[in-house]
Amino acid sequence: MEQYKIIYLHFKSLSLKIDYYLNSWVFQTLSGLCRAKGPLGALAGQALEAARSIFGNGARMNVLVYPHSMEIGGSQLNAVQIAGAVRDRGHQVIVVSERGPLVARVAALGLEHIEIPRDRARPSPHVIRLLRDVVKRRAVDVVHGHEWPPIVEGFLGAGLLGNAALVGTVMSMSVVSFLPRSSPLTVGTEMIRSAATRAGYQSVTLLEPPVDTLADNPSVDGYAFRIGHGIAPNDILGVMVCRLVPDLKLEGLLSACSAAGQMAFNGAPFRLMIIGDGPAKGQVVARANEVNVAAGRKIIELAGEMPDPRPGYAAADIVIGQGGSALRGMAFGKPLIVIGEEGFSELLTPESAPTFLRQGWYGLGSGSRGAGVAALHAALEATVPSSAYRRSLGLFGRTLVEERFSLINAAQKMEETYLLAMRNKPSVGQRLIDGARSVHLLTGYKLHRRFQRWIGTASRDDSNARGRISTILASGQIGGTTRNS
Which of 10, 284, 367, 474 has the fewest CB atoms within 10 Å, i.e. is most exposed? Predict the structure, then answer.
């Protein structure tokens, strides 16, 4: 029965691909023909309006999308993916960003890109002026900033006195106190949405991290990846795809290495592949080397950063991760072990899913199997021996992603948020009051960060620090500090 379900998923994925790309082709072709002179251009214009009334909402918008970074990472990848999906719904989309690996993805999607300096203050007066100029020259309707620096710069550059509406997206684990409260926000979990609403933000929409379920699906072939890395057919491969950074990630990476070592000690045919790069690489390499030496063979391998990690996901028998990476693993039909901090790990099952849908794909402290390396090892022991159990969990995860986290649904929700922002722009007086409040609180934040650096206690990413996340999970409070300072 499960084999038939998997075949059904493959056919369903193919059907969605045909529908999605047909819609995209219709919009792109008609948009191109609209530039033609004479009757052809006029006819194409009429056809394009008809297509929008069928596939979209009938309102063409000029949207400026501004991700906070272009490194390989969840928030910025979501920003680029949603930008492309919104364009495919018939809108004009421009991406403003610094250089980075994801600029290639912007180009591959056929989106216009405007580059800004990588080394800049946050917020940057230069970027504020550039945004103001682009909005005016290109008649931009909506500026969409992802994370706090783009949101603040978008507000000061275009939303304060300009005609463009501002929308902000926060995929970090907390929302800072100094964002403009009158501008619509989208956040990644229901807990954060509730906390932001209680803190006074006037329009907060839940936009869970989207997954491109058309590109990320169980039919992607991981055979060549396994062969290239010497993974035997009988090996059970665990895969982690993440940035190797101290905040959020490092504890889970080290715990996974240690759990892999315990599996090897017990004789299980388990291998661990880590895909990613970052400043904590040295610590992860050191732990992996310890495990490999103790086992007398290569149990753990670091594959480095992959601009397109889909072959790694496809090659996996089990995915270990958090956030967007966890969701991508589910899209490939893989069983998932969610990891967090303070020893948290939890196998995704129908019983544990409601917790993750409420708080996000992360956790702190003990899960159902306890905490620490022992808990992660127990989750692996439950999944490694049984291929039938792994298939069952993978099918559950894929179905959940399709129903709740698809990129197509996210683009539609984002489109609705843009329209709402355009229709309900606050008055100039409201924006000025909001701007004064934001600047005042931001100034205090900057001074506090400078003091923290002086005494040596500043965190690199304190919106994702354990204390901040613990507060959100425990009581929904928000406000304070975050990254990109």
Answer: 474
Cβ count near 130 (within 10 Å): 18
Report phi then psi at 336, rounded to 5. -125, 135
pLDDT tens figures, 343-380: 999 999 999 999 999 888 999 999 999 999 999 999 99
CA atoms of 24 and 45, how far apart (whole Å): 16
The closest alpha carbon to 147, from 179, 117, 119, belongs to 179
Laid out side by side, the sheet with 92-97 consists of 112-115, 92-97, 62-66, 142-146, 165-170, 185-187, 204-206
CA 382: distance to chain centroid?
28
pLDDT digits (tens, 9 = 90+) for 167-183: 999 998 889 999 999 99
Q: DSSP for 178-219, please give it.
A: TS-TTS-EEESSHHHHHHHHHTT-S-EEE-PPPB-TTTSSTT
Question: N- to C-terminal Cα distance for the chain?
Answer: 53
pLDDT in tens, 6-48: 454 445 545 544 544 455 555 556 555 654 556 676 676 666 5
Q: Tens of pLDDT along 262-280?
A: 999 999 999 999 999 999 9
**Cβ atoms 173, 468 nearer than 8 A:** yes
pLDDT at 485 over 50: no
Q: Which residues contact 176 (CB under 8 A, 6 or more apart)?
A: 148, 445, 463, 478, 479, 480, 481, 482
Are 7 and 14 in contact by the 8 Å Cβ rule? The answer is no
Closest CA to 303 of 220, 244, 258: 244
Pick from 161, 175, 190, 90: nearest CA to 411: 90
Pick from 409, 413, 419: nearest CA to 62: 419
What tokens does 144 get? 């969409």
Least Cα distance to 482 among 196, 270, 191, 170 occurs for: 170
Structure-block tokens of residue 232? 């035997």
Helix (H) / strand (E) containing 55: helix 39-55
> What pLDDT digit, counting tens, does each position of 422-471 carry?
999 988 999 999 999 999 999 898 887 776 677 766 555 555 545 555 55
- Are 187 and 204 in contact, with CB atoms under 8 Å apart? yes
Q: Strand 318-321 vs strand 300-304: parallel, antiparallel, or unpaired?
A: unpaired
Other C-beta atoms lying within 10 Å of the C-beta of residue 408: 18
Does the structure show a pLDDT above 60 at 479? Answer: no
